[in-house]
Amino acid sequence: MFRWKKRALPGLGLTLGTTGVYLALIVLLPVAALLMKAASLSPSEFFAIISSPRALASFRVTLSAAFYATIFNGVFGLLLAWIIVRYEFPGRRLLDALVDLPFALPTAVAGIALTALFSRNGMIGQYLEPLGIKIAYAPAGIALAMAFTSLPFIVRSVQPVLEDIDIATEEAGRSLGASDLVIFLRVIFPAILPAFLAGCTLGFARSLGEFGAVIFIAGNLPLQTEITALLIFIRLEEFDYQAAAAYATVLLIMAFALMFVTNLIQMWQLRYTKKADA
Amino acid sequence: MSVVNNRVGSSPRVKWTLIALGSAIGAVLLGLPLVIIFTMALREGLALYAAKIIEPETLHAIWLTVLTAIVVVPINTLFGICVAWAVTRHSFRGQSLLVALVEIPYSVSPIVAGVAYLFLYGMQGLWGPWLQDHNISIMFSIPAIFLVSLFVTSPFVARELIATMQAQGVEDEEASISLGATGLQTFIRVTLPNIRWGLLYGVILCNARVMGEFGAVSVVSGSIRGETNTLPLQIELLFNDYNTTGAFAAASILTLLALITLGLKLWLERKSPLRGPH
Fold this sequence. Notes:
The complex is a heterodimer. Chain A is an all-alpha fold.
């Protein structure tokens, strides 16, 4: 057989050089400028700023809403992935396509649409309000907006793994007399767990930073329904740049930590699938 | 997809309960927002809808949004090609670190991105005073909108192309180089035809995000009416002015863009079996 003589492909210097310069100018330099601004504060000043009651309340509001949004998406996203992969029903393709809507729809549009739906006179809110369920201008609204924007992460992480599950493993469980629920919990769920956790982490990270979808529906009352991203914005408008830098640094550190966790989970997932293939 | 009766969750009662539950929540969370946007936009009739859209401020916002995409998308497309070529056609130390750096903007909150740029180019920032001395203003003007949009959308094309080009393999290019083609000829004649659908996919996602970006742009644009307002910012302004019909009319344009994006995405996924969901 004739074989191509292997030769190195050209262009490494040019493409790597361009990548490096662009990345430095557009991504790394601004991030460094933010960190330098925050570093110009002494540690005691920094901690005083981020432990002010309003800041702590904003962290609590943001983290708890992101937590509930992730729980909701963990359950509902898994359900969506399950019915799309496992069943044939009218509207399946449409539902599959709609899952990507939150990625394609601008967050400000999502924000005003959800507000119009869930406010007191809204299409859905008018039925919830008499039941004492308040969503718009309440913490539940923040969680709802975050759940909307981060839903695709969980569905799209779980979907391919669910598709790959071998029917033989299910049948093995079945032949041992296990019920559907037991097979799901003991066989299927462990198989999708790494992908599921990776999707949840990505969704949680997205929720922590979400701004556009949240501010319309949140109500934005200090100490109650004010997210950290909005507090940064308010501090900028008040020309309190030190506080804005400190809060932004906190969000940035959380984002980096979650990115690190996602990478760990994905490495685990890779090992997991390799072991399954062997 | 063949439905084998023995699979987990295949009993009709379980199956249809899950489908009903998933479809219902999907319809409320993903379907109704689309319905409400067009209902609200058209609630005062088609004539008023048209009048709201051709208001000078809204028209200017549309133009600025399109202009931003015209500037930003090609630059980030070139960047994505450089990253993907360097990462998938060569191997070098620090490769996975580079990919991690490229993905930073995915996990950084748009508000944090805006703040970072403010601390680089703003008066309180690293280069602000120097720029001021030389009469160059970047913040609160159109260049700032371009810059933060570059930051936020820089990973989109890169990520798609890395996946596509990794799946493609290097044999075609190596053959072309062995036959005496230059690097550029190889890229245009061999690589580009192979990756065109993946490239288009990345470009479409990048474009949708550029046109819809809200948080980062709202920090750096200054939101000057009829000057530095992009369409998402104009939606916020109209909504806060209680011009609800105007806000939803403007939102309906971005919603159409999102629907076109989803349609193209489906079409491309069918064209190229390599392209799966994220």
